Sequence to fold (556 residues):
Amino acid sequence: MEGIALGEKLFFDPVLSIDNSISCADCHAPEFAFSDNRQFSEGVNGTQGNRNSMPLFNLAWNYDEHFFWDGNTFSLEHQAFVPVTDSTEMKSTWIDVQNKLQNHPEYPTLFENAFGSSNIDSTRIAKAIAQFERTLISSNSKFDQFLLGETDLSPQEQNGFSIFMDEARGDCFHCHGSDKNPLWTDNIFHNNGLDETFTDLGLGRVTGDPADNGKFKTPSLRNLAYTAPYMHDGRFATIDEVINHYSEGLKNSATIDPLMKKVGQGGVGLTTSDKADLKAFLLSLSDYDFINNPAFLNP
Amino acid sequence: MNKHFVFITIFLMVLFSCNEDTGDNVSIASVSLNFSHSWDDAPITNSDFNIIKFTNANGEVLSITKLRYLISRIILENASGETLPINGYNLVDVSKNESLLFRPINNIPQGDYKVSFLFGFNNEDNYNNNYLDLNSASWNVPEQLGGGYHYMQLEGKFIDNDLTEKGYAYHAIRAVDASKQPLKFEDTFIKVNLGTVNLTNHAQLNIDMNVAEWFKNPIVWSLEERNNMLMPNFEAQIAMFKNGQNVFKLKSITPSK
Fold:
């Protein structure tokens, strides 16, 4: 318990950045389902990275534990190491962070309570933050309530779900999960046809295998209402743009996923009403309680 | 993630209880199943993935980018017809080495056994269970096609008649005609008989899937005609079932640890 509270405090505390200007929560804010609303996140001094911030929820169920858009980091504990020293994020050093926390009026006691000793090091900081991150559970969307028999879907949402599950129409379920996999992601890497050539190699940069170029981790479709813009580079501002992409905007490349089957025609070619229904269904996966949960707000 | 629980049936205890003083018959063997993959005589591994290098019986050249399939209901049958069922299932994923080996099954009395397993799930297993590991692997079949689970996902690219690279998704499920209500089904899981093996000590059964068979025998498969949206395609599922009858062979038996 103490570990989680400590992790939460650290998550919201700009003390982790070099000039005390930004915290994890600046790029992972509760109101955006622990993501941000920028195309590219801004770190210390407004430095921009080249990736869209990722929302944080249900991370404990990422069984393969490959984090980031390209799977570059293994395990949440290791992940929490990265932003603190990343030059486009918090730009700090661990020595500096440890000194600041060790001389802080509250932190030594909080570490004492959580770990049985007031000694503060990067491992413990990362551990506490990871503990907090694992508590970020989103499971109360309208669709979740529907699955529990607590509410009905509108005919539009119901039809949108059928399109999502239909191999001949949306065919989204092979990568984005289903009512049986309500994480709404397979946590695997695919090229979903965004580009003909790649400026960001994605998984290919990590594995060095050209067959992995342009592949990114399938994001969860939960909480899309709060996580715009979309895709690893935040190129789409709206859900409509995303749906248009799959319907008629697909770009062919050597590594495009075989499931992007109608790439020759630009996509699955949904009708206007199918698009509207699909969007209504996608929005039913958003969890208002999650972003308003007082347990997850700045302590 | 694999959960292979071995439940040894009562008949084992019966076997143990006899001949204690003579010392024979009480020796114990273990067995594990190791899956390999080939294209006719050429082995397929991870490193062949993504390269358009295989030619099917229809003369189409293709690559494999994904190959996952489900094995269940392994049964060992001894000479007197008693069966030793092995609970559990294995999702073989050629991109994950650890999934190629089905953990050893221990405490089997030595002797001759007919070994068989199912490709896919029988209907009881398919519909009465909620397998969390398979769910999180997005292995489910949509409710509109009757629910349950995939049997196989074989995906890749092929060169079509216009000489362009096109994706294919050869997904095997229980055949369903969804154009009618109620849905009309036909069983398409496959019982694979590996023949009789003599189990002594620790045996590893090396089982090979000849992927080329899926496109060959008895139906010469045209990827040009059938490449995608095959799950709701009843005829395609029946064709997969027919072609799947001889894809698995027991290649060899080697000692294992």
Summary: The mean pLDDT of chain B is 88. Chain B has four helices and 15 strands. Chain B has one domain: 2-255.
